[in-house]
C-alpha cells in the first residue's frame, strides 16, 4: 500500500530524513518510535504533503501512485489522512461544515453524488457517540476552545467519517488522560481493516497497549534503525533508546 524508498528530506537546510525505507501493506498497523529529533513527525508530514519540507531524493508510492507528484488535495482524495499532533483551530468554520465539505469532496473525486443530509447526520451522530462527544461539538468552530483531549477526539472523528485508506497519526496520544486515551484507541481500532493501513507515530508504549501494532520501527537520526513486533515497544519502554543507538552505531 505504502512504499518509501531511500527518502532524504531537508527542513530549512538541515537534513532530517537520511535514506529512510518503509513498506506498509494493507491491513497492517505500524508504529514508529524513536528519540526526539529523529524525524518521526517529518515522515508523516512529508507523506501528507505539508509545506516546509524539501524532498531531495527518494520516492513515496501509495497504491502504485507517485505521492510526491500529487497535490495535497489529491492525496486527501486518494485516501491519505494525517491526524496532527497539534490540531489547528479554524475560527468561523463549524465542525459539521468541515466534515460535510471534506466528505463530499472525496465523493466527488470518486464520481459519486453528494451525501444526502439525513444520511450524513445519521453517520456523524453515530461516530460522535463512538467518540463520546456531545452533539454540540458539531456546531462549534473547528477545535476552537477545545481541550487537548477534545482536539484529538475530533481528529479521530474526522477519520471515522472520512474512512481514509491510509491513516497517519502524529503523536495522537500526547496530552491525553487515561479515559481520553481509551476512547481515542477505540476509535483507532475501529478503523482497522484488511483494506486500510495505519501508521502511528508515538513516543510512548502506553497507546500501543490499547492499539496493538503488527510492526514497530525505531527511527534514529533519519533512518529506521530497528524493526520488530510489539515486543520491541515493551523493550523500548523498559530500556530506553540507548541500546538501539549503540547497535545502530556499531
UniProtKB/TrEMBL annotation:
Q: Which SUPFAM superfamilies match?
A: P-loop containing nucleoside triphosphate hydrolases
Record flagged with keyword ATP-binding = yes
Taxonomic superkingdom: Bacteria
Residue span, ABC transporter domain: 2-246
Membership in a protein family:
Belongs to the ABC transporter superfamily. Ycf16 family.
Per UniProt, which keywords does this protein have? ATP-binding, Nucleotide-binding
Name the CDD domains for this protein. Answer: ABC_FeS_Assembly
- Its name, as the record gives it, is Fe-S cluster assembly ATP-binding protein
One Pfam family this sequence matches: ABC_tran
Look up keyword Coiled coil and say if it applies. no
Q: Which GO terms describe its molecular function?
A: ATP binding; ATP hydrolysis activity
Amino acid at each position: 500500500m505504502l512504499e518509501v524508498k531511500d527518502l532524504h528530506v531537508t527542513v530549512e537546510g538541515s537534513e532530517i530524513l537520511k535514506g529512510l525505507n518503509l513498506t506498509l501493506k494493507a491491513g497492517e498497523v505500524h508504529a514508529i518510535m524513536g528519540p526526539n529529533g529523529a524525524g518521526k513527525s517529518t515522515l508523516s508530514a512529508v507523506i501528507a504533503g505539508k509545506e516546509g519540507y524539501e524532498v531531495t531524493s527518494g520516492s513515496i508510492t501509495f497504491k502504485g501512485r507517485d505521492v510526491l507528484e500529487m497535490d495535497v488535495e489529491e492525496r486527501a482524495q486518494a485516501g491519505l489522512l494525517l491526524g496532527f499532533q497539534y490540531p489547528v483551530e479554524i475560527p468561523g468554520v463549524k465542525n459539521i461544515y468541515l466534515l460535510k465539505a471534506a466528505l463530499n469532496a472525496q465523493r466527488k473525486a470518486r464520481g459519486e453524488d453528494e451525501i444526502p443530509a439525513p444520511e450524513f447526520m445519521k453517520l456523524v451522530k453515530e461516530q460522535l457517540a463512538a467518540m463520546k462527544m456531545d452533539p454540540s461539538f458539531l456546531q462549534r468552530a473547528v477545535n476552537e476552545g477545545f481541550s487537548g483531549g477534545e482536539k484529538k477526539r475530533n481528529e479521530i472523528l474526522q477519520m471515522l467519517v472520512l474512512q481514509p485508506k491510509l491513516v497517519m497519526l502524529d503523536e495522537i496520544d500526547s496530552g491525553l488522560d487515561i479515559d481520553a486515551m481509551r476512547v481515542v484507541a477505540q476509535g483507532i481500532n475501529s478503523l482497522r481493516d484488511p483494506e486500510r493501513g495505519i501508521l502511528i507515530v508515538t513516543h510512548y508504549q502506553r497507546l500501543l497497549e490499547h492499539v496493538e501494532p503488527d510492526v514497530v520501527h525505531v527511527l534514529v537520526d533519519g533512518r529506521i534503525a530497528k524493526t520488530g513486533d510489539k515486543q520491541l515497544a515493551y523493550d523500548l519502554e523498559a530500556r530506553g533508546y540507548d541500546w538501539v543507538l549503540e547497535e545502530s552505531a556499531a
